[in-house]
Amino acid sequence: MAAAALNERLTLQIPLPSPRLAKIAADVLDVDKDLKPEVSRRLISTQDNILTLDFQTSTLKLLRTVVNSSLEMVQMVVSTMASFDTESEEP
């Protein structure tokens, strides 16, 4: 069976308060690998304080599902960092 073409793409750039928090978010989100890389890929990277999520999927429906799931995870990570990050507090 031939691999499906990954024709649908979306790139999200999410600004975070600092490069350190962007790196933490990327590391946390990158733990879960793609279950079916032949139909869906997610690349996570950072540049300065920007978290970049690049999605490629075989269908628009799958793209919507993957992006929605990833944004829910980003929301959870950002919320957790806001609650527990003590390094950003003033002395």
From TrEMBL:
<dbReference type="GO" id="GO:0000408">
    <property type="term" value="C:EKC/KEOPS complex"/>
</dbReference>
<keyword id="KW-0539">Nucleus</keyword>
<keyword id="KW-0963">Cytoplasm</keyword>
<dbReference type="Pfam" id="PF09341">
    <property type="entry name" value="Pcc1"/>
</dbReference>
<comment type="similarity">
    <text>Belongs to the CTAG/PCC1 family.</text>
</comment>
<keyword id="KW-0819">tRNA processing</keyword>
<dbReference type="GO" id="GO:0008033">
    <property type="term" value="P:tRNA processing"/>
</dbReference>
<dbReference type="GO" id="GO:0070525">
    <property type="term" value="P:tRNA threonylcarbamoyladenosine metabolic process"/>
</dbReference>
<protein>
    <submittedName>
        <fullName>Transcription factor Pcc1</fullName>
    </submittedName>
</protein>
<dbReference type="InterPro" id="IPR015419">
    <property type="entry name" value="CTAG/Pcc1"/>
</dbReference>
<dbReference type="GO" id="GO:0005634">
    <property type="term" value="C:nucleus"/>
</dbReference>
<dbReference type="GO" id="GO:0005737">
    <property type="term" value="C:cytoplasm"/>
</dbReference>
